[in-house]
Amino acid sequence: MALTFDLEEAVSAGALKGAACAIGVFDGVHLGHRMLIDEMVESSRRSGSPSAIVTFDIDPDELFGKGRLKKLQSNEERVSMLASLPVDCVAVIPFTREFASLPPEEFLDEVLGGLGVSGVSVGSDFAFGSKAAGDVGLLSRWGDANGVDVSVAGLLEVEGVPAKSTNIRRFLGEGKVCEARKLLGRNYAFEGVVLKGRGEGAQMGFATANLVVPEDRLILADGVYGGYGTVDGVRCKAAISAGVPPTFASRSKDNLEVHLLGFAGDLYGRRLEVEFAEWLRPLIEFESVDELADTVQANIAWIEENL
User: Fold this and answer.
1) What does the DSSP assignment read for 39-78?
2) Percent of the chain, pLDDT > 90?
């Protein structure tokens, strides 16, 4: 696990001095991000320099796109996943309005210049400074003038689709979790604390763990999915309902309900990671509870056999 610092700590500790670093938000830490970071790490090993990731404590759109932003991960999950990669340190820059207002040239001189890094790796669409006016061309010219090696990674494509967070969000918004997995390199997942639910599932023979997905994480299309749930390191197959079930819309606030196959025990108050592996069907309103129960049991049987 890499050491994680805020920017001032990293500079004070000299953790970035002479390092090759990759800079970006890295929401989702998808295959395109991994390619960029892996190339940076390989470069650092060849030169014998430390490797580092420089990221931000929030997604910049949390300031400027509030209410519209849909994130693949919480900020804590993102930074933790970055720290799990084979790098020496992760430096986290507080993204404030004051920081965002820096002209691109000041960002380069005051922020990058103060890090003492030997190399900077970014994606081809990297933008920085006030109104995102700085681009990779300006960064490359600054690097040439200051003895910093600048590497610009092209977009990774998977089966002809660019591995970008925007494409992953689009796939998830259409319920296409298999297509999203190809770009993420893993199942899309959400982690939260289990809340007390309505209780109908237990009465019908399939108790559910209930979670509330925050507004900025409501990215997945409503529907029923097959996947997995992990609690305290135990991973089980799972039937997952995303969205408020129409049958119980008048008395439900939970927007994620998870039935763990073969799990016995109380989940209330525990952290649960939910992975979405397959789309099964849309949410529909049933004419009776018996019809709902029969359909859910059929979904569970499919998951048991096919996942």
Assistant:
1) HHHHHHHHHT--EEEEEESS-THHHHSTTT---SS-HHHH
2) 73
